[in-house]
Amino acid sequence: MKNRNWMLTPWFLIFGLVMLLMATFMSTYDPLLFYIELGISVLSVAVVIALSISFRGYIRAIVRSTADHIVGFNSQYLDKYKYPVVVSGDKGDIIWCNARFRKTICGGRSPEGDNINAYLPGYFIKDIADGEGVDVAIDGREFTVYAVSNEEGGAVCHFIDNTDYKKTSREYHANMPCVALISFDNAEDFFTDSDESYSNVAISVEANLQGWAIDYNALYKRLGNNRYMIVFRDADVEKMIAQKFPVLKNVRSISSNRHIATISVGLCRGCKLVKDSEMNARKALEMALGRGGDQVAIIRDGSYEFFGGTAAATEKVSKVRMRVIANAVSRAVSDSDKVFIMGHRFSDLDCVGAAIGMQCIMDKSFKRYCKIVINREATMAKQLIDYASERLDSDIFITPEEAMRGLTAKTLLIIVDTHLKTSLESPELYEKCKKIVVIDHHRKAVNYINNALVFCHEPSASSASEMCCEIISYLDDKPLGYIQADALLSGIMLDTKNFVLKTGVRTFEAAAYLRRKGANTLTVKEMFSGSIETYREKVDIVCRSHIFKGCAISTTEKTTSDVRLAAAQAADEMLTLTGVSASFVVFPDNEKVNISARSYGRINVQVIMEKLGGGGHQTMAAAQLYNTTMQEAGHKLIKAIESSLEDDVS
């Protein structure tokens, strides 16, 4: 918006002189009118002269203040600067500019009276004064603007034209090498069919990867062992992100004997050297595989971005890795004097069951003082805890505070059913322990525990209890009795929904192993029973649900002690409704809002919960929203579902 009033001063003076002549002419006709017009004319001229003097003083003050900030200031030299310079007043109006500003920025016209903000698109002069400079674009040219304020409230702005530099910088970053490491996730599945079947599928997968590289003129190399490497340009990666990496869908279209091929991609951006890019691509690929595969993990400056992840993780038939893990756990326990076992907050049957099984082996086989760290007031496995406490000779459960008091320098902490620092029963205990072992089956998240001596992570496993069964079977499992077997079986039954979800050969082998150890399915079934109040709350939540794009969504305002258990059971129950592929229950919890999510695998609820800051597994996940209302949480959930479904379609 222009501020041209002060530029009209000459016209006001001419207007005043004309009125004075008119008054002189009127003196011969009407003396009264003559004196009135004469007074108005003199007053107008006086006001205009006064305003002109005031404005000239205003300009002198601005220029004088500006000169104080520029050593050796001389307006003639400033006017000859080879880059645009402009001086603005306290209202933002331009009061002076050099010839370069007039020519480069204004196209030859005089900008005096314009507001300086019109030449700072997206910024205000008061916000950038005395700052580090801002980048603006004007008529196809790019400038970095530095503003220096003065005592009168105005500012002098220097426009540095660096269009060519920024163009070169963009070209440099666009051509930076981005190494992508690719793994054929489930090649082992096709080995079991026939050599010919595997060869055909492997050739098809490699053809898709080669076509992917050709489309972007990228360097392609086969590394062996179903591993590949492609080096892209950073600008091409931007195009892939916009397209949501269609190569994942193309590879999923390859199948043989009911097996679907999937790949995992670890891609690094932002590294100047190919060597650094390759090292970070390895980390990204490890993250993609840890999250179940069938996805692209992009790492840039230590942060991750994920695409895909719709297919279920493939079960690994070989148990060699578990035998190696068991040996590593044995060595870690042998070097410790105490062992604490801890799971996640609001522990469930899988968490507590796995802990009870491991505690028995640590105590009886390794003869180590071993306790399970748990908060009995905030758990969803109260029946299992009471069952074990009543039948065992000693109390194996302690509070986090008691564990902290008994901590030593050689204490080993075994973490089960979680690998996230933020979800531990006692983050303080984790921070104090120097020796950590992690056993978890949830898909890998970014803030995982990265300082563990042993990190046993198997996203294809049905539960942490299944993993602990395999580890225990490779250790001295003679002390394992029916109590521990019941506890481990309850954990498997919980996470598999009574052997419906994520069940593989190893799942049933673990169940058979526990059955031989004395597990009783009827006893385990009783651990899933709840109170009549919990049942009423569950039914109420289910009745309040509504269907949105194949997802059952329900909310409850109740804040009872067992609302968390009722919400989890209601989410499971809603999956039995016709046309429902996923279920979500939103409920309050003190100063936050919780969301419990379940699915049968057709919709990846982990991806949806990650959009809300949560996480979990493909079929079971959750999120916690702080500083939000129930209504806002519901809106955010719907947006996350829509966004996730759109990504799946694309």
Short description:
The protein is α/β, with parallel strands linked by helices. Helix 12 packs across helix 17 (464-474), helix 14 packs antiparallel against helix 18 and helix 18 (482-495) packs antiparallel against helix 19.
Number of strands: 25
Rg to the nearest angstrom?
36 Å
What distance lies between the first and last C-alpha atoms, to the nearest angstrom?
45 Å
Average residue-wise pLDDT: 86
Strand order of the largest sheet: 7-8-6-11-12-13
Structural class: alpha/beta
**Proportion of beta-strand residues:** 15-25%
Low-confidence stretches: 1-8, 67-73
Tally of individual helices: 24
Helical percentage: 40-55%
From the spread of the alpha carbons, the general shape counts as elongated
Largest β sheet strand count, sense and barrel closure:
6 strands, mixed
Topology:
Elements: H1 9-26, H2 31-68, H3 75-79, E1 85-88, E2 94-97, H4 99-104, H5 125-128, E3 134-138, E4 141-149, E5 155-161, H6 163-174, E6 177-184, H7 187-191, H8 195-215, E7 219-224, E8 227-233, H9 234-243, H10 246-252, E9 255-256, E10 259-260, E11 263-269, H11 274-290, E12 295-300, E13 303-308, H12 320-334, E14 338-342, H13 349-365, E15 369-373, H14 382-391, E16 397-398, H15 400-405, E17 411-416, H16 427-432, E18 435-440, E19 454-457, H17 464-474, H18 482-495, H19 505-516, H20 521-526, H21 532-543, E20 546-548, E21 551-555, H22 563-574, E22 582-589, E23 592-599, H23 605-610, E24 615-616, E25 620-626, H24 630-649
Parallel strand pairs: 11-12, 14-15, 14-17, 15-16, 17-18, 18-19, 21-22
Antiparallel strand pairs: 1-2, 1-5, 3-4, 4-5, 6-8, 6-11, 7-8, 9-10, 12-13, 20-21, 22-23, 23-25, 24-25
